[in-house]
């Protein structure tokens, strides 16, 4: 009866994958206010990043351009493996929000309260260097906080 139909797969195992080379997600959905920086495996290879490298995360004055750079200086954070044991996993830095970080939730809020925003790189506005990636931010997703 259904032999002539074409079906598409809608279920997967594990986490959803992202095709974005880089992303920044600022989320305050639970009791944790955190910012997560994600580098695809491809970006890590192009920039010679390894899991457990120490990196600094820098922003241009207007918070529209981000640079993630290897560093052994004080204050550097660890680039972790998103999925433990998977050699093709993305690299991840998860930071608890503090006032020295850009407040993307507030920046994008306009007349509503947001509990999540997500940025990727602006088309063709990404630069790969040995030990660094620099990219211009492009807002791609927001979640409005639900009233309780």
TrEMBL record:
<protein>
    <submittedName>
        <fullName>Uncharacterized protein</fullName>
    </submittedName>
</protein>
